[in-house]
Design brief:
Blueprint lengths: L1 H21 L5 E4 L1 H11 L1 H22 L4 E10 L5 E4 L8 E4 L4 E14 L1 H68 L5 H36 L6 E4 L3 H7 L3 H5 L8 H22 L4 E14 L11 E12 L7 H67 L5 H36 L4
Parallel strand pairs: 1-6
Antiparallel strand pairs: 2-5, 3-4, 5-7, 7-8
């Protein structure tokens, strides 16, 4: 009985320890917007893989470089004849063949070869291409950083928008519940009609529905931000920046007034890099018409024995060595090489056209981003003023409604107008943050 209890206790302890080992502890993060951006650039899943692409491109560059460096290879062949081949020859010229056996049943051949490329036009172009290849992925990493930065700003702003919306909806709910209770008491005293109470109940139900929906959206917004940051969905995340402060700091009309240099745009740099790759491919095909020259040194040793132990200390080995040069001169390919060269030339011309198109599209994108940013600033000022007016109208209607000078319909309409103005004002603040991020993305100016 004691043994059974002991076994049960040990099993319970093992299961508990295993569960704790598998249960990943939650981590807590506290980020301002700048801190969130810095964290995401390092830990975002796309950013991590973009950095791996750079490392891979660096290895590819060395692989290309190593192709022109000395190459050493070794080879060992061991052979055993179960039955030696027989040769036949007419030695005396009398038409009678004699049979002979040449060689031994066992043989070994060990060879070491050193190869060195002396000249190859394709290799020179490949070295240039490997640098362009690496540059492409460096640009891709920079583009990933720019994209991640914009995603963090948008996700961070959505969380702040949801939090501010919940705070406003809670204030509206509290005020509306007080007004509804007072109206119910007035109705009980027979001073107003029941329609006034019902109208307020409809408005309160709408506010409660919006509050519940926004609360759910806040949870989704936080999870979306966590994914963008590269942290676990179950981790604790606290944001320190406030929506109004971020909005004020992002109002910068000078940004939209500066000169735009398309060469700073990362998409243009990648389009230029693509053109350079096609140009090098064209150059590579042309270089294949050049001769190539290489040299090699070969050292070998052979052993023969009638018995299998070829590697005894008294086994005799016969050495050989040679130095050689190989020259390969392309002469005629039935115009296949010319066809490949023309294809590469067309691809280069297409990339050049795409570069021009990209330049024009990026310039248009800049004009659109600048216009949207300027509009967001103007809209922010408009919505801020509209909110003040809606608050004044709502307060006046509330006083009139309380004193019986206006209908519940007029008061409810003023409330709906206020709630719409509140949300429009919050959205205008987020729009400033997002449109500035989009403009900075185009200009590659994130300072």
């Amino acid at each position: 009985m004691k043994s059974t209890r002991r076994i049960a206790l040990i099993m319970t302890l093992c299961v508990t320890l295993l569960a704790k080992a598998q249960d990943k502890p939650k981590q807590s993060y506290t980020f301002s917007l700048d801190q969130a951006i810095a964290h995401a650039i390092e830990h975002n899943y796309s950013a991590i893989n973009a950095q791996r692409d750079i490392t891979k491109a660096q290895k590819k560059k060395w692989e290309t470089t190593a192709a022109g460096l000395p190459q050493i290879s070794g080879k060992l062949d061991v052979q055993h004849y179960f039955e030696l081949p027989i040769s036949v020859a007419d030695i005396n010229g009398d038409g009678i063949n004699e049979e002979f056996v040449f060689g031994t049943r066992n043989s070994a051949n060990a060879v070491a070869t050193l190869n060195q490329l002396i000249f190859d036009g394709s290799y020179i172009v490949a070295l240039q291409a490997s640098k362009t290849y690496l540059k492409y992925y460096e640009n891709a990493k920079q583009k990933s950083n720019v994209d991640v930065r914009e995603m963090v700003i948008n996700a961070y702003g959505n969380v702040l928008l949801a939090e501010e919306s919940i705070a406003i909806l809670n204030r509206n709910k509290t005020t509306l519940e007080k007004t509804l209770n007072d109206t119910r008491e007035t109705f009980k005293n027979g001073l107003i009609e029941e329609e006034n109470v019902e109208q307020l109940e409809i408005t309160l139900a709408s506010v409660n529905s919006s509050l519940n929906n926004t609360t759910r959206l806040l949870d989704i917004a936080y999870k979306n931000l966590k994914i963008t940051l590269g942290i676990d969905l179950n981790d604790q995340l606290t944001l320190t920046d406030k929506l109004e402060n971020l909005t004020t700091s992002n109002v910068d009309m000078a940004l939209a007034k500066g000169d735009f240099n398309v060469n700073n745009n990362i998409d243009y740099q990648m389009a230029l890099n693509f053109q350079q790759q096609r140009q090098l491919e064209y150059k590579l095909e042309r270089s294949k018409a050049l001769p190539s020259l290489s040299a090699f040194v070969n050292y070998g040793s052979n052993a023969y024995s009638a018995k299998f132990p070829l590697f005894d200390s008294d086994q005799r080995w016969y050495n050989s060595s040679l130095l050689g040069v190989s020259l390969n001169v392309p002469i005629f390919s039935s115009l296949a090489r010319t066809a490949r060269t023309q294809q590469a030339k067309i691809a280069f011309e297409q990339a050049s056209t795409q570069l021009i198109e990209s330049e024009q599209r990026i310039k248009l994108q800049y004009e659109q981003a600048k216009s949207q940013y300027e509009f967001s600033i103007e809209e922010y000022a408009t919505q801020k003023n509209n909110l003040r007016l809606a608050e004044r109208i709502e307060r006046k209607q509330q006083v009139k409604f309380t004193e019986g000078l206006s209908s519940s319909f007029d008061f409810s309409e003023a409330q709906r107008q206020l709630y719409t103005a509140q949300q429009s004002y919050l959205q205008s603040m987020v729009d400033i943050i997002n449109t500035k991020a989009a403009l900075e993305k185009v200009t590659n100016n994130s300072k």
